[in-house]
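FAQ: What does a ligand-bound record look like?

Like this one, built around magnesium ion:
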Amino acid sequence: MKIKALKIKNFRNIPEADFLFSDKTNIICGRNAQGKTNLMEAVCVAIEKSFRTAKASELLPEEKEKDKAKCEIELSFFSDKYPEKENIIECGVYGGKIVRKINSVSYKEALKLYPQLKTIVFIPEDLYTVKGNPDRRRELTDETADMMNKIHHEREAVYLRALKQKNTFLSGIIDRRVSGDQLIQLSVWNEELAKAGVNVMCGRLKYFKMLCKYTCEYYGELNGAGERLEMEYISSIVKDTDIDLSDTEGVYNIYLERLKGHLDREIAVGHTLVGVHRDDVEFRINGRRAKDYGSQGQIRSIAVALRLAQARMFGEKWGEEPVVILDDVLSELDEKRREFILRHIVNSQVFITGCNDNDFGGIEEACRWKAEKGEFEKIMG
Ligand SMILES: Nc1ncnc2c1ncn2[C@@H]1O[C@H](COP(=O)(O)OP(=O)(O)O)[C@@H](O)[C@H]1O
Ligand SMILES: [Mg+2]
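The answer part, i.e. the structure of the complex:
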């Protein structure tokens, strides 16, 4: 997909802005805290979701009275397959809610017609996917499954709801004397949870192999033949994730047994101890855990390889390149990695932000804007 135009009103520190973008490369430069990331976030909010917050109210401008400030974003895009048809996304943040429409049709309905709507975002925080907490890595597997199959997101929501309800119930058993009624109730929750957990686990694993394959390939190209990257999904349910995913009943039985096996301890601690909310991904370089032993450079390479792998998977699945956003990352990368990223995303529309002119060295034929205090001035292209 290619974004053609963008209009913003009252988004974070951006009071009003209007853009016509290049199909190829768009550069936003400016000092720190001027609104570059906010602009990239506005694009992502219109298309999909913020990469910084789950709270819609944070997107409204702070200084204005919240209930008076209406945030509106209008984004027009073209699909690569139908380059003659302009599509309009209208997005509004009203209080704590984001409302979107595509060509005047509700977002949920329209998304079935426009599965190619996607931004792949590289941010400095991507490093924490490798070395941070496991929730970031679970998010990576969910995000990847979600872009390949839109149902995954709903399945995740069903799981989290069931988990919350079971945990509320568990933490309610405070005197630790469990009655027969409560045990029956818990086994009902476990069945619900196992059903939902199997869907999430199988959804993640289905695309995890491909993510590994591409990520490891890119990593090898980036860091040379002497280094071998491996990625493993660490499940709290099964030891070996190389299971037959089509045998959902078999996986369900294993999952349920595992939950049952933890019943006593779960009652004692008051929350659910096993399941997809406890899973993780391990990255190993030449057999050693990257989280503990990886150098900064190796971790950066994994982070870059992961995003490129996602972009490639998406392109292969939907027959269209996603929009790529490089927010403040080029300055952190050495020449080799920068050149590597830029070479692998030549068919995508790209947005690059940075503070210094040398962040954009070697990039020709780009439209350029200068960001200052939430305003954007076009300076080239
Ligand atoms: N909801 C908000 N309302 C008003 N200003 C905000 C809001 N959220 C963030 N900001 C401000 O926006 C400014 C620019 O942020 P950002 O886009 O991250 O800068 P950068 O140009 O470095 O990427 C910061 O000064 C921040 O305080
Ligand atoms: Mg920024």
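Follow-up question: can I read anything off the structure? Yes, for example: The chain has a mean pLDDT of 93.
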